[in-house]
């Protein structure tokens, strides 16, 4: 299990709000890099046993001059058995509606013949977070939930989501966190969680040029590179 935490004060408070779906004709074409992953990744025994594999999990976080973070997450997965097909038919993404807005840029199924089925806007919902315990609870946590069309064994799915900070947790500070794995939650009892193998995972952080920050990692030692541009220092793991 791999986790990357980036934070100016080493606080662990995950925040993420009102959903928007943005799709156009460009979402019907699949990036050549994704097609290459689908074509050339060898499906080994561990992937087959798990029932699914996350071929790509990549995230890019950009810190602006006001210390607000925009994070884009891109996921590509492949379905290898009927249980995974059932589990991934709906994708729930948790977020905090007080601190952030959320945008589903696109979601689609890539069939075994290479054809693409794009999600319809009426297949996207915002739900209240399930009440996992007893009694009445009040929370700003909500769930962006969307259904993937035409998912079948052997097909792949792809989606891209953007989290946009709308306010700070702490004045004049910013916080971000990245998991190198992808957690799929079940919104129905018994609220099972599945974490499938990940073939490739990467994270990029852009901070205003010359800005210092504190980072910490758990259970991994990722390689860090830095390449500045005109506005940002860019770190990659």
Question: What's a quick, concise take on this entry?
Answer:
This protein is mainly β. It has three helices and 17 strands.
Structure description:
The protein has helices at 32-40, 45-50, 82-88, and strands spanning 3-7, 19-21, 52-63, 69-79, 90-96, 100-110, 116-118, 124-128, 141-147, 156-165, 175-179, 183-185, 193-195, 201-208, 214-218, 225-226, 232-236. The protein is 9% helix and 44% strand. It has 3 helices and 17 strands. It is globular, with a radius of gyration of 18 Å. The chain has 237 residues and is mainly beta. The longest helix is centred in the first third of the chain and has 9 residues, at 32-40. The strands form 4 sheets. Strands 2, 3, 4, 6, 7, 10, 14, 16 and 17 form a 9-stranded mixed β-sheet that branches.
Tell me the total number of β-strands.
17
- The topology string of helices and strands comes to EEHHEEHEEEEEEEEEEEEE
Largest sheet composition: 9 strands, mixed
* Low-pLDDT segments, ≥5 res: 1-19
Output the number of helix runs: 3
For the residues shown, what is the average pLDDT? 86
In whole angstroms, the N-to-C terminal distance is 15 Å
How large, in whole angstroms, is the Cα Rg? 18 Å
How are the secondary structure elements laid out?
Blueprint: E1 3-7, E2 19-21, H1 32-40, H2 45-50, E3 52-63, E4 69-79, H3 82-88, E5 90-96, E6 100-110, E7 116-118, E8 124-128, E9 141-147, E10 156-165, E11 175-179, E12 183-185, E13 193-195, E14 201-208, E15 214-218, E16 225-226, E17 232-236
């Amino acid at each position: 299990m791999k986790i990357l935490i980036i934070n100016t004060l080493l606080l662990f408070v995950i925040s993420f709000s009102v959903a928007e779906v943005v799709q156009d004709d460009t979402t019907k074409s699949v990036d050549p890099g994704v097609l290459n992953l689908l074509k050339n990744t060898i499906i080994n025994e561990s992937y087959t046993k798990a029932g699914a594999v996350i071929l790509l999990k990549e995230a890019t976080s950009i810190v602006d001059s006001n210390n607000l973070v925009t994070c884009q997450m891109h996921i590509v997965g492949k379905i290898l058995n009927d249980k995974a097909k059932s589990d991934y038919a709906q994708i729930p993404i948790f977020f905090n509606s007080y601190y952030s807005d959320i945008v589903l840029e696109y979601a689609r199924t890539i069939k075994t013949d290479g054809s693409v089925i794009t999600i319809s806007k009426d297949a996207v919902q915002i739900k209240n977070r399930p009440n996992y315990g007893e009694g009445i609870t009040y929370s700003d946590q909500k769930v962006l939930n969307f259904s993937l069309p035409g998912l079948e064994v052997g097909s792949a799915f792809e989606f891209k989501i953007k989290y946009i900070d709308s306010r700070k947790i702490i004045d004049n500070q910013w916080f971000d966190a990245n998991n190198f794995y992808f957690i799929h939650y079940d919104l129905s009892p018994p609220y099972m969680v599945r974490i499938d193998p990940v073939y490739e995972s990467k994270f990029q952080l852009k901070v205003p040029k010359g800005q210092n920050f504190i980072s910490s990692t758990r259970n991994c030692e990722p390689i860090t590179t830095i390449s500045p541009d005109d506005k940002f220092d860019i770190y990659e793991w």
